[in-house]
Amino acid sequence: MSIKEQLRLDLTEAIRSRDELTSGTIRMVLSALTNEEVSGKEARVLTDDEVITVLSREAKKRREASEAFEAAGRADKAALEKAEGEVIAKYLPAQLSIDDIKKMIADAITSTGAAGPADMGKVMGAVKPLITGKADGSVVSTLVKEALNK
What is the pTM of this model? Predict the structure, then answer.
């Protein structure tokens, strides 16, 4: 079963159980998926990898919004955004640990022959396919910078 089919089934279940947070979040995600499908020259069906990319983007939006509301002293809104992010996270692959990411970065540095900060693009290019949907890109970017500045 594809991720999108699972989202639709879970939406039906959330509506039946009157879970407004889950149903609202899944509706928002399905809307984002539909927008992605119809963008461009012709409509298409997204693969599971593309769905994970959209889910990651939506989760990042919730994380950033939560941080912004927290900074503005709106704990209620921050909690809502955080809860929506947790609903989205159920559909994402398990997140990589920092140690796993550092190991992937070290392997990428070795394989690309990167020598300094100027080679960050090479390393990110090698690591990105391995971490898509499994780690936040900004965290990976920070870790790559640290590794290349040593």
Answer: 0.76
